[in-house]
Design brief:
109 residues, alpha+beta, 4-stranded antiparallel β-sheet, 2 helices
Length: 109
């Protein structure tokens, strides 16, 4: 290129930035659920089966849901004896298209 000296100087800066970013990202770990679970959702006071049904989302901070998707509805099924739950999230996107996403997971113990 036109400025080979600048390119040579930029490479170490990029490498150092990449290493620092990698160290920072690798240093983060999610906490265990048992360490952050609130007493209000303990099985002795909260019955997860009560969560089943239709839930209308009037607001969310969900980072994977684009702001042009609104009017979210979650249809939740809870299967306590089998140890799992599922829900379908349906949103109206761009004021016309309904988009549905099925989610399934294991119940915590």
């Amino acid at each position: 290129g036109k400025h080979p000296q600048r390119q040579k100087m930029a490479m170490p800066k990029i490498l150092i930035t990449s290493i620092l970013l990698s160290v920072h990202v690798n240093a983060f770990t999610c906490p265990d659920y048992e360490d952050i679970r609130q007493p209000s959702v303990d099985a002795s006071v909260f019955d997860i089966a009560d969560f089943a049904g239709t839930w209308y989302m009037i607001a969310t901070n969900e980072p994977t849901l684009p702001s042009f998707c609104t009017c979210g509805v979650n249809t939740v099924d809870v299967h306590v004896s089998e140890g799992w739950y599922s829900y379908i999230n349906t949103d109206t996107c761009l004021d016309s298209a309904n988009i549905s996403v099925p989610i399934k997971g294991d119940l915590s113990t």
